Amino acid sequence: MGKPIVLSGMQPTGKLHLGNLEGALRNWVSLQDNYEMYLCIVDWHSLTSDFDHTQDLKERIFQMAVDYLASGLDPDKCAVFVQSHVKEHAELFLLLSMIVPIPWLERVPSYKEKSVELNLDSYGFLGYPLLQAADILLYKANYVPVGKDQLPHIELTREVARRFNHIYGNVFPEPDVLLTKFAVVPGIDGRKMSKSYNNDIAIADSPEETEKKVMKMITDPQKIYKGDKGRPEICPVYSLHQIYNSNYQEIYKGCTSGELGCVDCKKMLASHINSNLAPIRAKRKELEKSPDKVKQVLENGEKRARARAQATMQDVRKAMKLE
Ligand code: SF4
Prior knowledge:
This protein is mostly helical. The chain folds into two domains: 5-185 and 291-319, Rossmann fold (3-Layer(aba) Sandwich), CATH 3.40.50.620; 205-285, Tyrosyl-Transfer RNA Synthetase, CATH 1.10.240. It is 55% helix and 8% strand. The chain has 14 helices and five strands. The protein has helices at 18-31, 43-50, 57-70, 88-97, 102-106, 109-117, 123-126, 128-138, 151-168, 207-215, 236-244, 248-257, 262-288, 291-319; strands at 5-10, 36-41, 78-82, 143-146, 176-179. The strands form two sheets. A three-stranded parallel beta sheet has the order 1-2-3. Helix 4 (88-97) packs parallel to helix 14 (291-319) and helix 11 (236-244) packs antiparallel against helix 12. It binds iron/sulfur cluster. Iron/sulfur cluster binds at residues 219-220, 223, 230, 232, 235, 237-238, 251, 255, 260, 262, 265-266.
C-alpha cells in the first residue's frame, strides 16, 4: 500500500503571509513525509472572483511557489503545480456539473456570504465549490488539510463522490479532513489576517517592515499606560506571541499585572517573528534569484499530477461509458 493521498491548494495571491504560513504551509511541511502530497496553485479558482485581475497572475504564481519552497516543502516529496496546467481539472468539473443539483451549491455558506459581500453572481462563482470538489476527487485524495471554515466544501465533495459512485459505480474515495492547528491568525487590525484586508505581515517582508507593522497592531483598548492591567486574551499581539514566543506565559503575566507595556510587548513580538522567519526569508531570497529552478519544480510537479489525473479520468470515462 502506498502512502495516503493529500490534496490541498491556495489561490495565487502572490507573496504569502503569516496566516498562510501557520494555517497551511507548516502543516503541509509536517505531512510531507507520511503522505503523497499534491499541492495545487489554484489559478482558475482565483478567476471566480478576480476575473478582471490577470495582468500579474504569473508573477503571483511565482511568488507563491517561492514561499512554498522557502517554507520547507520538498519538491521530491510533494507535487507542487499550477491547476490550469493540468486540464483534467476542467474535464472532471464539467462532468460533475451534470450530476450536481444547483441547490447543493447555493447552500454552501461561503457562496451566500461572499456573493452579497463581493457582489458576485457568475456561474463560475456558484460552481467554485464544485471545482474544488473536482480538484480533490481528480487525485482520489484520502485527506484534505483545511481550517474549520472549509468544512462545508469538503462535505460537498463527499456528497458529490457518493452521488457519482451511486450512479456510475465506485470510482472515488470519500475524502476525510485533516484539521489544521492554527486555523486563524489575526492581522494587525485584529481581524483574520488577509491580503484583501491589507492587515497582513508577509513572509517576504523585511525585519524592519515586520517591526513597523507589529508596532501598528491594535491591542486591548483598556490598556493605555504601561501600568494598566491588560487583557491578553482579547489582544491580537498576544495571539501572535502564542505562536512565535515560547515564553508567551511571561507576556500574559506581564500584561495582566501591568508590569509590561504594549510598546515593549510589540518590540519583543517583532523580534520573535523575525528570528523565526530568518531561515525562510534567506531561502526565499536565494530562490527569487533562480526563477528557472522554481519553474522546473512546477513542471516536475505538473508531470506527476497529470499522470495521476489522467489515470483517474480514464476510470471516470470508463464508468460513465464515455470510452
Ligand atoms: S501588553 Fe501586550 S498583550 Fe498586553 S495589551 Fe499590550 S500588546 Fe496586548
